[in-house]
Please model this.
Amino acid sequence: MRMFCFHCRDGEDGGKLRAVHREAHLKFLADNASDFVLAGPLKRADGLIIGSLLIVKGRDEAEARARLENDPYLTGGVWQSIRVDEFSPLLGDWVYGMAKPGG
Model:
């Protein structure tokens, strides 16, 4: 299974919309936890949440995107933009237990 990094930036009304959809978003994450490597907020230096970072499992990018299609932050318009890139950990805590590069 491959991993895809979703860098999701909130729109102008992100804070207000997050408050509306937060409980449903957290339930969505809990109900679909096996689809995620990690998920969490992106914050400015002053602590204001400005987006989300999610690493989603999938055979390809289309499958990873499909796993998010019912996320209340997506359907509720919290995220204004989403950048997706494949992620391959090479160093650090995530590598433990995984095959070494080239191995």
